Amino acid sequence: QARFVESGGGLVQPGGSLRLSCTASGFGLGQYAIGWFRQAPGKEREGVSYISGYGSTPYYEDFAKGRFTIARDGGKVNLQMNELKPEDTAVYYCNTVVLEGNRWTPFGSWGQGTQVTVSS
Asked: CA 44, 49, 54: angle at the middle one, nearest 5?
């Protein structure tokens, strides 16, 4: 089973930017629909952004629209995050996803995630 590896997190001031990367051990992500998710302390994991397997169409949750950009880069899926806010603080994860109705559902195993902290 694929093991996802997330990287690129860190501490950034409000208004700053980070670029997260998602890779998977053993295979490239090129043909899979991939989603980015996040989990803040004390909250449930929530979806952030998704990219379809064929055509690489991007999708965003409302809070990410206009600030985040998901894109493929070879065998990786990156999430460029701009105009970061303190409420974006969370551990960010990636996973394979499938569209069920109008909801992207993760179905792979979760990796360790990468911590994003937005604070002055």
From this structure: 135
